[in-house]
Amino acid sequence: MSDTRFSKPLIYMLIGSALILALSLGVRHAFGLYLVPMSHEFGWGHNVFSLAIAMQNLIWGAVQPITGAFADKYGSKIVVAVGGALYSLGLLLMAVSSTSLMLNLSVGLILGLALSATSFPILLSAVGRAAHPEKRSLAMGIASAAGSFGQFIMLPSTLLLLQNIGWSAALVVNAIFVALIIPLAWMLKAPMYVAPNASALANKPALSFKQILVLAKKHIPFLFLALGFFVCGFQVVFIGIHLPGYLIDHGFNVTTGTIFLALIGLFNIVGTYSAGWLGGKYSKPRLLMGLYGLRGIAIIAFLVLPLSTWTIYGFGVIMGLLWLSTVPLTNGIVANMFGVKYLSMLSGLVFFTHQVGSFFGGWLGGVNHDMTGNYNMVWTFSIVLSLVGVLVHFFVNEEAVIHD
Amino acid sequence: MTDSLRGLKILIGLAVLGLLSLAILLWFKTPQMFEYFNQAFCPH
Fold first, then answer.
1. Does A245 sit within 8 Å of B44, measured CB to CB?
2. Rounded distance, CA A241 to CA A2, Å?
């Protein structure tokens, strides 16, 4: 029987991945706070900054499979280190951006590329490769929880920096923080886990990138898994961006809204860790079915129950628990299906659909509000999408397509 | 489990608790966070 405990090199790698994800996702999560001061200083409409952020999200999603393929071929260490350098450069350029062109270059292009090299698909794949299959989900959950923690701590930190030293200096401070990703990347050096029966499989010829892509394209459960991640992106971004407006529409004050945002952040840490832990014990597709189902029930309850401070806080706690808990489960399923050799690229492909969902969640929320003065249609669509999430994961299984 | 590994785990646990407490304190110091979100994202 093989030893499933975390080895020392894996613990070392987990610490590195956790710190990198906390820095990368934490700094990214606070980008929205720069919209108001930058737009005010340069006399931009909100559309200038919003376009740069939308570009960033699309570039991040579109290049993620390519960055993942580089990580699979040349190693996560080098890709993350280059990503850290780009991230720092992008923030410094953003700090001196005074035109929409410079903003699109820094926020849109450079930071979009940097995020694709320093976020979940690359780091979770690195951790997933080094962990024993039985502990892979837990390891991914720990790293994901660190990313969630980064989001929770960087949001108020960035706001305090903005208020005390101004937006440009705050960006320089953040650039120094993310530059730490470069040395931290050298912690990603745990060897790939090798199963005791690996010698029996070693004689099988390895598949090429092209062959694995063809295989993934034809594997229906993989396509359903990607569709499920679209639902996640849509719901998270719609609620994250438009719930403040919904609460204002219903006459709630700033404190209630701030506590709501904090509760989502805090319980997101608990949710991602717990999802990773549960994923090591139970079927991940079934857990995802439950998760999307609970999201739908929570949204229905939120809309049907009389709106009060306590229902808002309750919704914050439940949505926080369900927020990024899809991430370790979804990436864990990809690893079980196709093994770990091309995990970064395949996780990147699934992540692309998440980003497309994010784009539509943010955009359609605004369109709905502009046209009708409320969010009813998109709330209803979110509930329907929860059902879609439950349904598609019913057809997802973790059965290995490739054994490695 | 070796002593060094147990020590590392305790150290990580304490660091996480400390950072979590710091993060909660920072949220208490930024009650106007929601206002920034609202101005930034919402069509009002």
1. yes
2. 46
